[in-house]
Design brief:
Blueprint: H1 2-32, E1 38-46, E2 52-60, E3 69-75, H2 86-94, E4 98-103, H3 121-130, E5 134-144, H4 146-157, E6 164-168, E7 188-191, H5 199-203, H6 215-220, E8 242-245, H7 258-271, H8 285-310, H9 331-359, H10 369-397, H11 417-445, E9 449-451, E10 454-456, H12 461-488, H13 501-528, H14 538-565, H15 569-586
Parallel strand pairs: 3-4, 3-5, 5-6, 6-7, 7-8
Antiparallel strand pairs: 1-2, 2-4, 9-10
Helix pairs in contact: 1-8, 1-11, 3-4, 8-11, 8-14, 9-10, 9-13, 10-12, 11-15, 12-15, 13-14, 14-15
Length: 593
C-alpha cells in the first residue's frame, strides 16, 4: 500500500513538472510574440568561410516586402547565445523593427570557432540587409559586451550599411574592436552600467561610474571634459551623434534591466526612421523570463519525479536500498568538515580554472576553454576532497569499523558493475526525458529554460560530441562529492538516525554553494560600494553567479537519490550529465573543427 501511495504521489509530481513546463512555455511564447503580433523564425544561413550561422528573427505583423521595416541586428556577449538578447529583441520588435538576434560564431547553434569572422557580426548584418522585409538604408546595430565588438566589426567591414549603433557594457578599441573616433562609428550610443565589472578593460577606468572621466571615451565623444550622461553630442544627421547612458547595475544585469533595455530603445527611436513610437518605458519582456523560469523549475522537478518513478519499476527497483549505517562525523568534527567543504571550492575557483586553461588549450577533444577551466576546477576539487576523505578514513574512521559499504560505494563489500551500470542507465533515462522537454519547448514555443544567466538549452550534434568528452571528468567530481556529503558529512540526529529528507537536502545544497556565495559577496559588496573587484577576475566572477543555483540543484539531487538507493551512483550520474549538458550547450567553442 505504501508503495502504491508513493508511486501515485510521484506520478502527481511528474504531472506537475510537465504542467509547469507547459504553462511556462505558453506564457513565454505569448510574451515574446506580443500576443501573436510578432512572428519568430529560427533562421540558418551560411557566413564567411562556410561557417553556418544561427539566429532568431523577430518580424512584426504588417511587415512585408511591399512594406519593409527598419532592421536591428542584436548580438549577445561572450559565452551567451541568441536567447540572451530576448529583452532587447522583444521590445524592439514590439516597436515595429525587424530584429535578428544572432548567435556569434562558436556560440549557440552557429559554427565554430568563436571570435572568427568578426564574431559573426558582418555576416549577420549582410543577412539582415538581404531580407526584402527590411529597409536596407535604415538599420541599427545593438550588442552587449563582446556583442558590442561584433557590432563594431560589422560597422567596420560594412561602413555604409548601417545607420546607428548602441553598445551595452562594451567599448571601442578593446582587444578585438576597432578604435573609435568622433566620426566613427556612425551615431554611437554607449550604455555602461555604474557597477560594470569590465570598466578597466573597456574604458580604462577603475569602476563603471568613472566612465564619464575616461579619456578613451572622451576622444570618441570629441571632448576633453567629463562626459554628461544623457547629453546628445554631435549630430544625428551628420552621423556623428554620441550619447552616454549610465544605468544602475552590473555587466550581466544589462540583460534584465528595464533601464538598460530602455536606453537601447531610446537611441534606436532617435536615430532610425519608422517604428510605432511606443515609449521606451513600456516593457513586457520580463514576463517571458518568468515563463522560462517556471519551465526551468518544472524541469528540475521532473528530475526527482521521473527518477523516483523509475525506481519503482521492475527494471530499476533493485537499486533501492536503505542508507548504510552512519559512520560519519558529528559535533565539532562535522563543523570542521563543513567549513573545509565550503572553503575549498571558493579558494580554488579562480586558480584551478586558470591553470586548467594554461595546461589544456582548446583542442578537438576539449574545445571549450571555459568548460575546460570549470572541468579543471571540478576535478581538482574532487582530488582534494578524495585525498582528505581517505586521510580521515585511514587515520580514524576505519578504526570505527567504517568500510566502503558505509559510504554507499559497494554492495556486499564488492563493486557491482551491474548495479553501477543500471544506475547509469537510470540517469540516462532521466536526463533524456528532461532533454525531450527542453527540445519540445524549443520546437513548439521557441524558448529554452532560463532566468537571466541561468539557461538550459538544446544541444547541436557537435555539442553532444563535446558533452561526451567532458562528462566523465565531471562524473568523477560528483561521485566524490556525493560520498563526502552523504557519508562523512551526513546530517543525523543525536541517536544517529537520519534527519528529515528536506533538511538533509538543504544542508547539502548549502555545503556545495555557500563557498561560491561568500566569494561573490567578497567581490560584489566592494564593487557596489564604488570600488573595483578586490579579487579581479571579472569574467570568472560572472561565471560563478550561475553556479549558486546549479550547485543547490546538485545538492538536492545527490541527497535525494542517495536516500532512495543507499549508494552514490545514481545521483552523481544524473548531476554529471545535467551539469555537463548545461555548461557545454551554453559555452563558446574555441577550436576550429
Amino acid at each position: 500500500m505504501a508503495e502504491s501511495i508513493n508511486s501515485r504521489r510521484l506520478g502527481y509530481l511528474l504531472g506537475l513538472a510537465v504542467l509547469l513546463v507547459l504553462l511556462g512555455g505558453l506564457l513565454a511564447s505569448a510574451v515574446q510574440t506580443a500576443g501573436g503580433t510578432i512572428q519568430i523564425q529560427d533562421v540558418r544561413f551560411t557566413g564567411t568561410n562556410g561557417i553556418e550561422m544561427s539566429g532568431l528573427l523577430y518580424i512584426p505583423n504588417g511587415v512585408t516586402a511591399e512594406a519593409p521595416a527598419p532592421g536591428i541586428l542584436a548580438i549577445h556577449g561572450y559565452i551567451n547565445s541568441r536567447e540572451t538578447q530576448d529583452g532587447f529583441a522583444i521590445e524592439l520588435a514590439r516597436r515595429g523593427y525587424v530584429v535578428l538576434a544572432l548567435d556569434q560564431t562558436g556560440h549557440g547553434f552557429s559554427g565554430p570557432p568563436a571570435f572568427a569572422n568578426g564574431f559573426g557580426g558582418p555576416d549577420g548584418l549582410r543577412y539582415l540587409r538581404s531580407l526584402d522585409i527590411v529597409d536596407p538604408d535604415n538599420i541599427g546595430l545593438e550588442g552587449h559586451s563582446m556583442g558590442g565588438w561584433a557590432s563594431l566589426a560589422a560597422a567596420g567591414v560594412l561602413s555604409e550599411d548601417y545607420k546607428s549603433i548602441v553598445i551595452e557594457g562594451s567599448s571601442t578599441g578593446a582587444p578585438f574592436a576597432a578604435e573609435g573616433s568622433p566620426e566613427w562609428p556612425r551615431n554611437l550610443a554607449v550604455v555602461f552600467s555604474q557597477w560594470d565589472e569590465f570598466s578597466g578593460l573597456m574604458w580604462g577606468v577603475p569602476v563603471g561610474a568613472d566612465i564619464v572621466n575616461s579619456e578613451k571615451l572622451q576622444a570618441v565623444f570629441d571632448t576633453t571634459d567629463p562626459i554628461e550622461v544623457g547629453r546628445l553630442y554631435g549630430s544625428i544627421e551628420d552621423g556623428t551623434a554620441r550619447q552616454l547612458y549610465a544605468p544602475r547595475g552590473t555587466h550581466p544585469n544589462d540583460h534584465i534591466s528595464t533601464e538598460a533595455i530602455g536606453n537601447a530603445i531610446d537611441w534606436m527611436q532617435m536615430t532610425l526612421d519608422g517604428g510605432n513610437g511606443l515609449p521606451p518605458g513600456d516593457q513586457i519582456w520580463y514576463w517571458k523570463e518568468i515563463g522560462t523560469f517556471i519551465a526551468f523549475i518544472g524541469g528540475v522537478v521532473f528530475i526527482f519525479a521521473a527518477g523516483g518513478l523509475l525506481l519503482t519499476t521492475s527494471l530499476f527497483g533493485d537499486l533501492r536500498s536503505p542508507m548504510p549505517a552512519f559512520k560519519g562525523t558529528q559535533g565539532t568534527g562535522w563543523w570542521i568538515g563543513a567549513v573545509i567543504a565550503i572553503a575549498i571550492p571558493a579558494l580554488t575557483f579562480f586558480w584551478l580554472q586558470n591553470r586548467g586553461n594554461e595546461l589544456l588549450p582548446a583542442s578537438a577533444f576539449w574545445p571549450q576553454t571555459i568548460t575546460t577551466g570549470i572541468m579543471a576546477w571540478a576535478v581538482g576539487n574532487g582530488i582534494i576532497s578524495l585525498v582528505l576523505l581517505l586521510i580521515w578514513h585511514y587515520r580514524s574512521n576505519r578504526q570505527a569499523g567504517a568500510t566502503a559499504e558505509h559510504y554507499g560505494v559497494t554492495w556486499n563489500s564488492q563493486f557491482n558493475l551491474g548495479m553501477i551500470g543500471k544506475s547509469l542507465l537510470l540517469a540516462i533515462c532521466v536526463i533524456f526525458g528532461l532533454y525531450l522537454l527542453v527540445a519540445i519547448s524549443d520546437w513548439v514555443f521557441k524558448t529554452d529554460f532560463r532566468l537571466w544567466v541561468l539557461a538550459l538549452k538544446p544541444m547541436s550534434f557537435l555539442h553532444f560530441h563535446i558533452f561526451l568528452a567532458y562528462v566523465i571528468p565531471f562524473a568523477f567530481f560528483f561521485l566524490v562529492a556525493s560520498t563526502v556529503l552523504n557519508s562523512q558529512l551526513r546530517m543525523v540526529k543525536a541517536d544517529g538516525s537520519p534527519v528529515a529528507l528536506g533538511r538533509a537536502m538543504l544542508v547539502n545544497a548549502a555545503l556545495l554553494a555557500a563557498g561560491i556565495v561568500i566569494m561573490l559577496l567578497i567581490q560584489y559588496i566592494p564593487l557596489m560600494a564604488g570600488n573595483p573587484l578586490p579579487l579581479g577576475e571579472s569574467l570568472l566572477t560572472i561565471v560563478g553567479i550561475q553556479f549558486v543555483p546549479l550547485l543547490i540543484i546538485v545538492g538536492f539531487v545527490l541527497t535525494y537519490f542517495y536516500r532512495k538507493t543507499g549508494h552514490i551512483y545514481t545521483g552523481a550520474f544524473i548531476s554529471a550529465m545535467f551539469i555537463t549538458w548545461y555548461i557545454v550547450a551554453g559555452q563558446a567553442i574555441q577550436f576550429a573543427f
